[in-house]
Amino acid sequence: MKKLFSVLLVLAMLCSMAFAADFEVPAEGYDGSEVTITFYHQMGTALQEVLNAYIAEFNELYPNITVVSESKGSYDDVRDTIVADIQYGRQPNMAYCYPDHVALYNLAKSVQTLDELIADHNLGLTHEQIADFIEGYYTEGHQYGDGLMYTLPFLKSTEVLYYDKTFFDANGLTVPTTWEEMEETCAKIKEIDPKSIPLGYDSEANWFINMTEQYQSPYTSATGDHYLFNNETNRNFVKRFNEWYQKGYVTTQKLYGAYTSRLFTSNTETSLLHVHRLLRPAPPISVPKTTKTATTASRPALPPFPRWT
Question: Do 168 and 272 form a contact (C-beta atoms < 8 A)?
């Protein structure tokens, strides 16, 4: 990631000029002049500390490039800020965001393509560096319909299920491996602790997309009819999860008003199973540390993600 961040910042330095007509990659690369790069992101304190360390290392190589790192809140806050900034021509040089946000920015033709920069022998990426990316993450950068490269992967998140092993062991519960088993487990947890919300799932959108992948049901398409999600299969599982909510089995970030991991770690509220999006610059995975008292402390564990049978 350190090497990638240095490449991204140099690319961004050049992209800051890309809104001028007839932009070309400088034949001799970066000339050492003073440049300021503005970088919008949504990183919290922990990841900002990692980012700041990388910026410091970058500045050892490029002391005349100033990186202004600005956390704008959530992913949606980053998107909304950039959309507003584009209207006044003051958008950042670099942003950490979702691919659909990039497509939105590009409606105003405000995203610099990276193909020539990546291929440049002075500033670009080597074949070895490109091969070091996970292929699917890298090719995601040219999925916008014209075959051109608009993004490079910086950080990636993945969803995991974790559970309170202490509670499960004490009550003889088996970790669910399918969504049918998940429903049965939630019902048992509700019987044991009627005040609990057994399952917390942070992202409703990700849950829906995961289900379409598991069912192989239509969701969207880049060609033809773009809106394929309104079909019987998808309506049925949304109806089923709504029934879980009505029974008090599940909540989500929007319904709860905060990340549902707070339920998992709280002394006053309870969630025993949790699906959370973990974001890391490197492979190691961790789960939230519990703040419960010693007598009720939970011991988190990571099982496989549930599937439909």
Answer: yes
